[in-house]
Each structure stands twice: as C-alpha cells, then as structure tokens.
Amino acid sequence: MACPVSFITGFDMAPELSARRLSWMLPMVGLLVALVWLGSLDRYLSARYHLSLENALPGPLAQRLFAVSRWLDAHGRGPEEAPFRLAWPGSASGLPAETRDEKSLTPEPPKWEALPDALAAGAYLPSLAQQNLAPGPQRILFAGDSMMQGVAPLVMRQWSQQYPDWQLRDVSRQSTGLTVKRYFDWPAKIIEEMDAQGLTVVVIFMGPNDPWDMLVDGQRHVFPSSGWAYHYALRVDEILAAAAQRQVRVVWLGLPSMREGRVKDGASLINQVVHARVKAWGADYLATEPLIGLLSEPFKKFKPDEQGQILNLRAEDGVHLTPTGLRLIQRALQSHIDQAVVQP
User: Fold this and answer.
1) Whether pLDDT at 14 is above 60
2) Which candidate, 311, 307, 308, 310, places its Cα nearest to that of 329?
3) Is 199 left (phi over 0), alpha (psi -120 to 50) or beta?
4) Residue 285 DSSP one-character state
5) Predicted local confidence at residue 73, as pLDDT
C-alpha cells in the first residue's frame, strides 16, 4: 500500500526519504510565501498599527529579505496598484465635451519638487467654501478613518431629525487612509458610492494613518519626501476629479493638532497637500485647527471656550477626540453644509 506521503507528493519513495525531503522542502516553501507576503504584511501593519517591519528588523539579512520582497511585489502587482493619472489641459482629456471646460474641472497638476515650508507659529490653513448646493433633499456620504467614525454619527443623528428627507450614509472605516490602497482603496470606494447612490455631497475626514512610506509602481516613496507628497496629491485628485465630473460637492476636513511627532508632521503635510488640491479643484476645505488646536503650536489636550470654561478636547492617545471635541466639529460641519444650500 502506498504511503500517504507518496500519494500526496506524487513521489514513489520510502517514508524515510519523503520525510527527509519534506524537512527541507517545507521551510523553503514557507520562506517563499513569507517573501511574497512580506511587503503586504509590512504595509498592513504600518497602516493599522503604525509598525514598520522593515525598521523593526534591522541588519543586512532583513534588508536583503525586503529587497527580494519588493522585487516580487513589484513584478506581481495587479493593475489596481498603478498610479492615478489624470489628463491635464493640453492633452486629450477623455472627458465629455459638455463638461470639459467647466470651472475647476481640470486644474493645474500637482507640483511638489520640494516639500512646503512649515507654517509659522499660530498660522493655519483657512477653510474654503467654493461650492453651493441646490435646494432640496441632499444625499451625503461620510468617508474616512476613525476620525470620521466619531463625527459622522453625531451629524447624522442631528440631520436625520432636522432633514428627514435627506439620505445620509456613513462608510468610514478604522485604520484606513490614502497611503495603502491594497488594504482599503478609498478613491475606488468613494467613486463606487457616487455612482451607486447619486450623491450630492461627500464629506472626508482622514489622515493619521497615512504618514508612512508609499509604494507606487514598485517604487517606494519615503515619508516625508516630495515624491510622497506628489503621489499623495494624485490620490486626493483621484477623488476630486471624479466628484467634479459628477458634480458632487466635496467637503474635506483638515486635521487638527496631533501630539506624536510623526503623526503631527504627517498631519501638517497632509493638510497642505489637501488644501492645495481642494483649492485647485474648487472644492471645500473645513479647517478643524481653530476648533481643536493648531498644528503650528504645541499640542494641548485642554482648551478654554469663549466663556473661559476649560474643555477636554483630546483622547489620551493625542490623536482622537473626546465627545466634546467631536461636537465642536459636528456643529462646524453642519453649519458649513447648511450655509452652502441655496435657499429657494
């Protein structure tokens, strides 16, 4: 009777020889599988837990393993990892003729030859209100990471009572962002929702999970670098271009102050990239810094209100917001949208 190992492997050999063969074959197969998934695991841990395996495993061996993993990842990458490319003015846009010349439909492409200078102490990027909404029921999508998971339920609860004929949908997802598309592709998800729901407004609030290296076309763009800022801007443009084509208003919430160094530096750069692209596309930017705390100033967990009462606005992690902080952003967002609706 053939031994089970011979039956499974197809090798007609004694069990002892099969065991010896398997003793070196299985580790080799395990190593190959680990190399294939090493890059994806590294990006997943970076996006979800801000843990970099490449930095946590120093040494020549780890560097060689990640070099092989990047090569395998680049040569095995599917079409979804290709960078977004928009046809800019002067080239065949591919847009419908009736919309091609509309205001802000095809702005100048992003240019990040160098990183922008840090804002002076006490300065912040102001809100932008560049679009109006037609009167009548609105169909609003809330998209983002755990920052939006705190804000969206408060806004939806208030608006569902105030505007019972509005359609409100929250698709926010924890530990997501624009940097790692393989874990969750926000541009694709938002575009899918635009087409499926016939949206009039998309509200976006995300960013703390993004200040990590970005892999595009097999090339790693280190955070922070001009290459990283450029490709991050392209992913912002992917959403804004789709919204402009569909005449959907985008309200992008800027990030408030952050305590931790890398996340704080990331928030500052992300705000500058997002603000520049939102302004170019004629969309909206809602600054949360004046409400919660400026990125150009030292982090503060507490802040006095207009009556001098001390408010606790930040969670212990120095990133998320307390219910009090969330309500401040809720009221600001509701006011921003309400003012945009053209009264009949």
Assistant:
1) no
2) 311
3) beta
4) E
5) 53
